[in-house]
């Protein structure tokens, strides 16, 4: 009997069917070995979408596997973020999540559809960019923030400002600017910059303090006028545009940022591989140049680096939410 079982067992072991190392071997197979879904929680054409596609394109070129971008917009990024959080933690669903998910929404919602601290696994920082104070050239004559304040105060009907949704950094930035300068301003939320910009160009919305990357093309062609940027220093994409401080608006330094994430529970080897790819891509001078041309700054970090920044900034955003009274239910 023994002489019959042993050869059979050797055959099965050779095939890997009975090996106690078979499962670990499968778990350690190179990632990715099939297509990866990249969920972008914003519409096509906005800064998050544009910069995510640059990285997805490079990830695909490096790994030889498709990184298919899927736009799942709505609820100021929460719909797409929830889809990532609820996906299978196997490394084949990921996406870029802005600071609203990491550091703002918990102060705006009584109940979130997911818990970012327990249901998301950051991979790496992705980008940082300032907001730009932009106005439609054909409808607003102001050429700097002070002129805009005077123009807005003189309008009996007040002014309207757009953002990619309630509770986003552009919403809170616009509300804070209006509050500090005693403007009669109405917030008009959109699903993203791809909808905000046409409304501004039509004259339905008077200004936005929105992510710079989305506005660079319409500023460059003259349809929008950049009055200031919210970064501490001028941005290379708009070297002639002053900072808010240079334009006489003090204490208004706001930087938006984004980090790639998996759902929580992704195996450590996959997380490490994805983080290394992010480091390599974002530190590539060619990619950095593409980000600058698009209005952003490429960044990379450890997964813990994302948590450190989110927790450091949460008190500031909590205070801003309180001052503006922004709530999302």
Brief rundown of the structure:
With 329 residues, the chain is of the alpha/beta class.
Topology:
Blueprint: H1 2-15, H2 22-27, E1 36-40, H3 47-63, E2 67-71, H4 78-85, E3 93-98, H5 99-104, H6 116-119, E4 120-136, H7 145-154, E5 159-163, H8 169-180, E6 185-189, H9 193-201, E7 208-211, H10 212-220, E8 224-229, E9 255-263, H11 268-282, H12 285-294, E10 297-298, H13 303-324
Parallel strand pairs: 1-2, 1-3, 5-6
Antiparallel strand pairs: 3-9, 4-7, 4-8, 4-9, 4-10
Helix pairs in contact: 3-11, 3-12, 8-13
Describe the sheet with the most strands: 8 strands, mixed
- The tally of domains stands at 2
Mean pLDDT: 89
The assigned CATH architecture of the largest domain is 3-Layer(aba) Sandwich
Order of helices and strands: HHEHEHEHHEHEHEHEHEEHHEH
Shape: globular
Low-confidence stretches: 1-28
What does this structure look like?
Keywords: Receptor, Signal. Residues 1-27 form the signal peptide. By secondary structure, the protein is an alpha/beta fold. It contains 13 helices and ten strands. Strands 1, 2, 3, 4, 7, 8, 9 and 10 form an eight-stranded mixed beta sheet that branches. It has a two-stranded parallel ribbon with strand order 5-6. The longest helix has 22 residues, at 303-324. The relative contact order is 0.18.
